Amino acid sequence: MRHESVPPLIGRVPECEAIGRLLESVRDGFGGVLVLNGDAGVGKSRLLEYAAESAQDLAVVRLVGVEAETRLGYGALHRLLRPHLGRLSALPRRQRDALNAAFGLTDASPSDCHLVGLAALTLLSDAAAVAPMLCLVDDVQWLDRESAETLAFVGRRLYADCLGLLFAGRDGSSDLDVFGALPALRLEGLADVEARALLSAGVTGHLDQAVAERLVTGTGGNPLALLELAVSLGSEQLAGVTALPEPLPVNRQLEEHFRQAAALLPADTQTLLLLMAATPTDDQAALWRAAGSLGLSARSAMPAVEAGILIRGTTVAFRHPLIRSAVHSAASTKERQRVQAALAATSAPERRAWHRAEATDGPDDVVAAELEAASELAQARGGYSEQALVLTRAAEMTAHPGKRAERYLHAAAAHLTSGNLAEVQTLIDLATPDLTGPQARVHAARLRASVEMICSRPRKVPAMLLEAVADLRTTDPMASWDLLREAVQAAIIGGRMITGTTPHEVAKAAADAWRESELPAWSPDPLIAALARSIAYGYAEGAPALAAALARLRAADELQEQDAFSVMVSIAGDELWDIEAKRELLEKLVAADRGRGALYGLSLALLALAKVEIWDGRFAAAESCYNESDDYLSATGYFRSGDFHKILLYAWTGREAELRAAAATMRALSEDQGTGVTYRWAGQALSIFEVGRGRYQAALDAQRDILDDHPVALGDINLAGMVEAGLRAGDRKAATMAMRRMEERAPLAGTPWALGLLARCRALMSDDDEAEQLYKESISHLEKVPVAVDLAWSRLLFGEWLRRRKRRADARVQLRAAYESFESWGAAPFAERARVELQATGETARRRSADTQLDLTPQERHVAALAASGLTNAEIASRLFVTTSTVEFHLSRVFRKLGITSRKQIENKLGNAGSGDRAPAGQ
C-alpha cells in the first residue's frame, strides 16, 4: 500500500496552539521561536507540516538536518540562507565579511561565530521585512555545530522581526543542548483515544478493537509506528485472526522496520538510497554524478517510490527523515565504502578527502595528510567543529603514534575554539598514551588548563601549568612564558583557593622568567609581568611596572581581548587607583570585542566597565552594562548570572536582600570552583553597604576578609573603608594596619584617586584641626578624576567632622552636596546617612521626585541613550547584536513613553535624570 505523503493530524491541541501563537506573533510584526523535541516518529515532522499548512500567508523556508553533513561547518546555514544571499551587499561590512568567510565566498579571515550569527539574523530579518517568514528546521540533531549554534543565536536575538523559527529534534542528542535556552515543547505519544483514531484512519479493512488496544499500548502512541503498522500488517493480523509480530516497531524497532523494508528492494535501488543518505540534500548534481559512476539512473528510484520509502516532488526524497538514518546505519562497511569512493571521485576538493577516508580501510598516511589539508580549509572559514572532526578522522588514519597524538591534540584545540569542551578532554585522553617530548605534553596541559578556566575552575590550573613549565626545562623560553602568563592569571582569579602552589610562588616564577622583548603595543605580557612582580616582590617593585604597562596599553591603537584580559586590566587599574586608565582601556576592549562580535569577551569587559561607571556615580549606565553583559552571556549560551554580578550596585543602592543573596551565591561559587576573586568581590560589596548603613563592625569583618586574601585584587581600593570602619568600630589597631598600607602604597601610585583617599584616611586618623585641611585636600584630588562616589563620600565625612565641631553652616555645604549626589544616583544607604547628618544641622533634605523615565525598560533606556549620542538605527543594531526593526520598535516605545516626536529630543529628556543616563561609555 502507498503511504500518504502527509498523514492526518490527530490530537496535539497544546502543540498546535503553541504553533498558532508563534504564527500570530510573526503576523503581528514580532519574532518567535519554538523547539519541538521527542522520540523518533513521535510526530515532530508532522507538526512542522501543520505549521506550513497554517502559514500559507507567510513565506515558508525549510531546512532538514542530514547526518552526512554534520561535519560540514556552516553547511546547513548556507543551505538555509542561499536564497537570500543576493541581499549580502546590503549588510554592514563586518557582517557581510563574516558570512562571506563562513561560506568560503571570499578569502577573508574567519570572524567570531556570533558576528556570523548577527549577519544571519540581519539577512533573515531583512527578507522577513519584505514578506513575514517562517523557518522550519527539522532533525536539528543532524545540523553541523556551527549552523546549530548560529540558528540558536538567531532564535535568542529575535524581537520585532516578523520572523518565526520552528525547530524539531530527536531526544537523547547532545546536539540539542545548543537550543536549550529557547522555548521548547516535548512531544509524547498520543493519548489512547487519539492513537486509536489515527490507527483507524490508516487501516482500510477491519480493525479489531483488542488488536487496536495492543498496538496503541505496544507503540506508546507513537504516530509513525502506528501508521507503519497500519500499512505493513496483514488484514488478518489487523482483524485479530493471526498473531501480531514481536516486538512491535517503535523507537529503535521502528528504524529496524525501515531497514527491513529497504532490504526488500532491488540491489541498485538500495545503493541509490545509501547514496542519497550520504549526499547533501541540496546537492543533486553531486548525487547524480556519483550515481552515474555507479551505473545508477533515475529509474533505480522507482521501486523505492512504489514502496513508499521515497516520495516524488520536484526531486525524489525520503518520505521521513528517520528512513534516511535507517538506510545509512543499516548499510555494511563494504557498501558504504563503495558509495564513498564514488562520492570522492565526483565531489568538490573540500569534501573529497573525507569521502576518500570513509572509503578506505585502516591507516593511510596519504589520506590522513589530505584530511589535515582539508581541515585547514575549514579553519579558514571559521568552521572549527568541522576542523576538529576532520582532524580527528585524520588522527584515526595515521599510522605513527606520535603524529596521531599530535593530530588528536590539534583536533582538541579546534573543539576548544568551537566551545565543545566535552570533546576536548576525550581527545586529550586519546592522545595522552602516545605523547612524545615536552612540547606535546605542554600542549595537552595547556588544553586541559584552558578547559578549566573557561569553566571558571582555576583551582588546579596554576600548579598544572607550573608542572608543564618544569617539563620544558628552559628549552623553550617563549613557551615557558606563555604558560607562566596563564598561570599568573589563574592564580589571581583563584587567589587563596588554588591548590598545589600559592599565588606568591606562581608570581615569583613568572617575574623571574620575564624578559623584555619586542612586542606589539596591545600585548598583555608586560601587564601580567607587572602584576606578577607586585605579588612576588612587593608594591614598591610592582607599582612602577604596572604604571608603565598601563601607559603602554593606552598608547596602543587597538586592544585585543584574550584570556579574559579585561579582568586583569580592571585589577591593575584598581591596584594603582588609576580610574582613568581603567576606563580608557576597558572602553577600548569593549569597542574591539564589539567590532569582532566576540560576545563572551565583550560581556566580561562590560562587567568590568560597569564598576567604573559605579565609581563615577553613573548607576544607570552601570545597570545598562550589566544588563547588556547578561544579555550576551545568555545569547552565547554560556549562562545567565542570576544578577549576582550586580552585587556592587546592590551595595551602593541599598538593595540588601539582593545583596546578601548575591554574596551567598558568589561565596558558594568561590568555594565550589576555586574562584577566590568572587569571594573578594562579595566582601568588597558587603563592606561598602555596611559602612553606608553605619554597621561598622560588620564592615570591618568584611574588610578583613579581603585584606587576608591580598596581595592583589581589590585589597587596596578598600583600605580607606577599612580605616573608617576600624575607627568607628573602636578597633584602632585594624585602622592603623590599613593606614600603614595606605601610607606605603598611595604615594607610589601617585594618582589623584590614591592621593585623595590617602588624605581622607589621614583626616580620619587625625586628632586635631589638621583634619580640615586634609579633607579639603582629599576633595581637591578627587575632583580631578571620575570617582564621583568617593568625592561625595569625602564630602560626607568632612561634613560630619564639621558638624561635630558645631560648624553647622560649613557642615551644611558639604553634607548638602553629598546628599544631593547620593540621592540623585539612588545610593540609598549613604543618602540616608547624609540626610540624617544634614537634618542635625537644622536643614531639611529634599527628596528627589519620581521620574517618568523609570517607565522605560533597561533595553529601551539603552537604545534611547545610544540614539541620543547620534548613532543611526543600523549602528545601534550592530552594537547591540539585534536588528534595525528591533531598534525601531524600542525607539517608538521610547517616543511614546517620553512624550516626544523626534530623536533630537531624547537627550534633553534623558539629561533631566542626571549624568547616569548618558550613553554608556565604550558603546
Number of separate strands = 7
Radius of gyration, in Å, reads 33 Å
Helix content: 55-70%
The end-to-end distance, rounded to whole angstroms, is 64 Å
Tell me the domain tally. Answer: 5
The main pleated sheet reads as: 5 strands, parallel
CATH domain fold name of the largest domain: Serine Threonine Protein Phosphatase 5, Tetratricopeptide repeat
CATH class category of the largest domain: Mainly Alpha
Number of helices: 46
CATH architecture descriptor text of the largest domain: Alpha Horseshoe
Mean pLDDT: 88
Q: Uncertain runs with pLDDT below 50, 5 residues or more? A: 912-918
The fourth-level CATH homologous superfamily of the largest domain is Tetratricopeptide repeat domain
Strand order of the largest sheet: 2-3-4-1-5
**Approximately what portion of the residues adopt beta-strand conformation?**
under 5%
Global shape: globular
Structural class: mainly alpha
Question: Nutshell version of this structure?
Answer:
This is LuxR C-terminal-related transcriptional regulator. The chain is mainly alpha-helical and 923 residues long.
Describe the structure.
With 923 residues, the protein is mainly α. It folds into 5 domains: 175 residues, Rossmann fold (3-Layer(aba) Sandwich), CATH 3.40.50.300; 59 residues; 178 residues, no CATH class; 232 residues, Alpha Horseshoe (Serine Threonine Protein Phosphatase 5, Tetratricopeptide repeat), CATH 1.25.40.10; 66 residues, Orthogonal Bundle (Arc Repressor Mutant, subunit A), CATH 1.10.10. It contains 46 helices and 7 strands. The strands form 2 sheets. Strands 2-3-4-1-5 form a 5-stranded parallel beta sheet, with helices on both faces. A hairpin with a 3-residue loop joins β6 and β7. α27 crosses α29, α34 packs parallel to α42 and α41 runs antiparallel to α42. The radius of gyration is 33 Å and the shape is globular. About 1% of the residues have low confidence.
